[in-house]
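note to self: dont lose this again. the chain is below, predicted strucutre after it. 345 aa total, dont forget to put it in the shared folder this time
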Amino acid sequence: MKRTRSLTLLVFILFSLALVMAGCASPDAAGGSGEGAPAGQVEDHSEDEYIYVSAMGNLEFFNAHKYGWEWAGDTLGVKASYVGPAEYDMNAMVAAFDQAIARKPKGIVVFAVEPILEPSIEKAVNAGIPVVTILGDLPNTSRLAFVGSYQYDLGFVGGQRLAEAIDGEGKVAILSLPGVGMFDDREAGYRAAFDAYPGIEVVQVGDTKADTVTSINTAKDIMQRFPDLAAFAATDSTGGIGAATAVQELDRVGKVKIVSMDRNSDVLEKIREGVVTGTVAQNDAAMAYWALLTLYTYNYNQAPLTTDNIAAGVNPGPSQVYTAVNYIDESNLDYFLDANEIYAP
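---
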């Protein structure tokens, strides 16, 4: 009996060792682009370049993406480059995308914010460069996958937290960018959360135009129109900081609750001051990692769905990777603020 157990244990150890050795090698995956390293050796992909194409790089919001992208490159042992205009300039972003294609990288991640980027995505894919969209999606393209938040969930979580803050009743105004798909989805999430509370009434949707001054003025106008307003729900950080400033200037701190969106430091400081109740945060730094990992896996670790995935024209990986929704309030505020300092260029 003891001998049988010993043999069984030995077989198990040898089998486990074989698995570990196999994991160290990069197998010639079905349809994968790598030829594979000899058994027991790890392939060197340090010369591979992956490029993140974005816009509005001057915004603090993207600091976490830049940091996460660089961290992902270091973790996977590849070059991770970040390009694109500092402002919201779509023509400049398209130019940056085309320049990225010319560098023939192993993959491109793009902030798919506008349909104007669709031809560039197709151009990259036709050149044999896989593309992953991030934050925003252009699902009618040949992109490999989308990595980001489910916009509806961002609003729904924010709505639940705001409903709790006002004890399930009162007049609420939503500060958003009406007509822009991702923000409309967030608004829909807020409204769905409020549906569980008959005492909550959405009295107005204010257009911030993604401008702080406009957001402040819009919030003030709403409070003057509805002096008994209970709360503001914001679909982005502009709405959050606009509402916070307006509430302070009209001496309504504590009387009007605010749930913002995103982890910008100015919004987080307003939570510390007790002006903002909380804010909904996307998985920004981690999102960049999952986007790069999706491309890396496609290139080197495809599951053998067929004998030749590329020739068969199949995608053995996920087409959508939805990352978690996080909520920031006074209980975990410092962790995010400290990270923001690390992310700062």
